[in-house]
Amino acid sequence: MAQLSLMHNSATDNRTSSQVVPLPRWTWHAWRRVLVLTAIGFLLGRANIEHVVSPFGLAYFAVLSEVAGRKRAWPAYLAIAGSYTVGGTLAAITMLVELLLYRVARRYVFRKKSPDLHFIPITAGIVSLVAKLAMIGTVWTKYDVLIALAQAALVTILSLIFIQCMSLFIGQEHTRTLKYEQIISVVILVASVVMGFSGLEIKGVALSGVAVDWIVLVMTCAGIGVGAAGAIVVSMLTLLNHQASLSQVAILGFAALLGGLLRDTNRFFVSVSFVLSTTVLTATYAYNVHTLLVGLLTAGIASVLYFMTPKRLENELRTYVPGTREHTQSERERVQRVNALLTEKIHEVSQVFDELSKSFSDTGETEYAAAQQLVTQIVSATSQHVCALCPRKAKCWDKESMQTYHAMANTLRNIESAGGRRANASPEMKERCIRLDPLMSTLRYNLDITNRDAKWMKKLREQRTLLSAQLSGVASAVRGMAIEMDEDHKSSLSDEEQIIAALEQLGLYVDDVHIVSLEPGKVEIEVTQPTEGAYENSARMIAPLLSGILGEHISVAQVQQQHEGGPCTSVFASARLFQVNTAVATVARDGRIVSGDTHTSVDLGNGRYAVAVSDGMGNGERANRESKAAIDLLKKLMKAGFDEKLAIRTVNSTLLLRSRDEMFTTLDMALIDLFNAKADFLKVGSAPSYIKRGNEVIEITGDNVPIGILQDIEVQSIEHQLRAGDILVLMSDGLYDAPPHNYDSETWLRSVIAKLETTNPQDIADTLIETAVRMNHGAIRDDMTVVVAVVEHREQEWAAIKLPSVPSLRKPMKRRGA
């Protein structure tokens, strides 16, 4: 019973975890949303235009049903009660018919659970038209048809508007950044709710007027644009049922404009400015003191309610409006949370690779234990085949098993030591065994099979060790990326604000600044601008300013624009002090089309530039396929962040596993640091490389076997400091060994390179190939490839801008390797 209960609980847990939408937790925060949705439904049910058209309730019900789900849309049914308070039983029945008819249409028209939301407003409009005409009766006048069409059109439009903002009210917003269209949609929804206060008064003061004034005061926290636009939209909609006049629309717009200017002060000044502006402007058109007093009283009550409004509500509203300090802070916090979660997940992935690496490396098996196991396996197989029917089996294996085992093991040692010669059994074996000839032949046969298995097991252990190293390399690369992300995200908010303040001193206003990294040589800063001419501003003002603040040259790495006319994000990064210009010349053996050599010149993206030449065994397509596979895999591993030596060992193991045939390739690679011009030469079975510095020629050599021959290879790394103007020459064996036998390869090549007068890399590469071909009287005996790289200073695009009032974000630091 206990086990059955446990299985039941486990099944229940699985069903719960597989659900897409979790069960709602009815906390106080959730109940507040329910109360707000209920109040909106009730007031939208009351809202109408001249007591003739009531499109708000159905539009709200249709949108809430699709966005929140049918089971969570029950607050919208309060629209029935709202319509009853305004139009009596007939209005309530009409609203009930509309809602039920929509549910029927939704169920049978759209079979899918999640249809396209653009069809929902059309469906709601058609339902409104049918319900309105059905409630009128069988005799329709032109006026009735026009009213029904007008209401259907309004239902469709309002549904489209409510779709834009309904996710905010149910807590399903996907982003904290709202477009201005969405902000206006929220304002229209709020104004529609305010229309539900029509006809409600306390002591002669209309609740709709108090609600409008309070909403305008709250919207001033979002700034001039949102406050003024929202005030005009709200007052214009209340104008439809004569709750306001055109003059009041202008007064509220000006009051919201003035309150938006004072949003960074405090509520007292905002309230005073609102009351004074509305009172003074109302006095200019009011024909009696009563109207003026009612307006003053309405503004005063709204101000009191504004003071009672939690400050948290204003801060929450500002987080949705782009350009406000709260929105910027909210976006930064969201990015930091996402980055922290991402860093944690990356750490977990690195730990998984670490565990996999340990599982492949820690097998608990030594070479002695493996050899002992193989001996035991041979003895066991031989005894089952030879001793099974022997009359002395009981004596040998039951009573004297250890002595028999050692005697057979010694015999095996004699057989293995004899090699191909005939071996004798051990003295102990001769004394014990009466079937010595079949025993010896069986031992030899089993030893041959076991030796073959042992070779494969050794190869498997080697591959397992290599796989462990590769997994460890992946874990190291992933862990390094996580650590780098974690360190980059620790940049302080004050540094970002300092950059924003410095830009404002130059008269350039930006939306946001995000510091990714301030490490010397690895600076990365993202600046979001609202204008279309982002690149010009970035190149002319922002990049020079950052160069002055950081003490190193900064360049524009990337400019991103999501859509035309929208905000642009510019990425600024450390400018490299050096650049590499490369050229290549290659010819195939006997003038063929396909060469067995492969070359590459690639920017690895981390401040390093790689130049490599690979020479495959032989010539033609097969050699080209092997060398190209080595170069392509090496390039991808290094761009992914692998250590160069581990990457080369990985390529070596890949070539070993590609084919049973003997396939190998040489590799000659130079990694150049573009910040300090330091180069690492990695040579695996390759020809020498040369550095031409003025009239001096420096030779870089290495002694090891090519890739793909041995399991464990030695990767030689030779470090050399380059200078601006240095010329690197990397070549395949075909060019190095091109001269006839009466020439010295090293002497002729150094002599040709030393006599070069040009610094153009392509001319140098062509000259070396042509010289090699002429020395053989036009014959091409092997594939020849030469890659020439010229190291040059990178010219600065602009001078740094240093503002006296802006201190440096960090002290000047020495670059890597300095």
From TrEMBL:
<dbReference type="InterPro" id="IPR036457">
    <property type="entry name" value="PPM-type-like_dom_sf"/>
</dbReference>
<keyword id="KW-0472">Membrane</keyword>
<dbReference type="InterPro" id="IPR052016">
    <property type="entry name" value="Bact_Sigma-Reg"/>
</dbReference>
<feature type="domain" description="PPM-type phosphatase">
    <location>
        <begin position="581"/>
        <end position="791"/>
    </location>
</feature>
<dbReference type="InterPro" id="IPR001932">
    <property type="entry name" value="PPM-type_phosphatase-like_dom"/>
</dbReference>
<feature type="transmembrane region" description="Helical">
    <location>
        <begin position="117"/>
        <end position="140"/>
    </location>
</feature>
<feature type="transmembrane region" description="Helical">
    <location>
        <begin position="146"/>
        <end position="171"/>
    </location>
</feature>
<dbReference type="InterPro" id="IPR014221">
    <property type="entry name" value="SpoII_E"/>
</dbReference>
<feature type="transmembrane region" description="Helical">
    <location>
        <begin position="34"/>
        <end position="62"/>
    </location>
</feature>
<dbReference type="InterPro" id="IPR045768">
    <property type="entry name" value="SpoIIE_N"/>
</dbReference>
<keyword id="KW-0812">Transmembrane</keyword>
<feature type="transmembrane region" description="Helical">
    <location>
        <begin position="244"/>
        <end position="262"/>
    </location>
</feature>
<dbReference type="Pfam" id="PF19732">
    <property type="entry name" value="SpoIIE_N"/>
</dbReference>
<feature type="transmembrane region" description="Helical">
    <location>
        <begin position="268"/>
        <end position="287"/>
    </location>
</feature>
<feature type="transmembrane region" description="Helical">
    <location>
        <begin position="183"/>
        <end position="202"/>
    </location>
</feature>
<keyword id="KW-0378">Hydrolase</keyword>
<dbReference type="Pfam" id="PF07228">
    <property type="entry name" value="SpoIIE"/>
</dbReference>
<dbReference type="GO" id="GO:0004722">
    <property type="term" value="F:protein serine/threonine phosphatase activity"/>
</dbReference>
<keyword id="KW-1133">Transmembrane helix</keyword>
<feature type="transmembrane region" description="Helical">
    <location>
        <begin position="292"/>
        <end position="309"/>
    </location>
</feature>
<feature type="transmembrane region" description="Helical">
    <location>
        <begin position="74"/>
        <end position="105"/>
    </location>
</feature>
<protein>
    <submittedName>
        <fullName>Stage II sporulation protein E</fullName>
        <ecNumber>3.1.3.16</ecNumber>
    </submittedName>
</protein>
<feature type="transmembrane region" description="Helical">
    <location>
        <begin position="214"/>
        <end position="237"/>
    </location>
</feature>
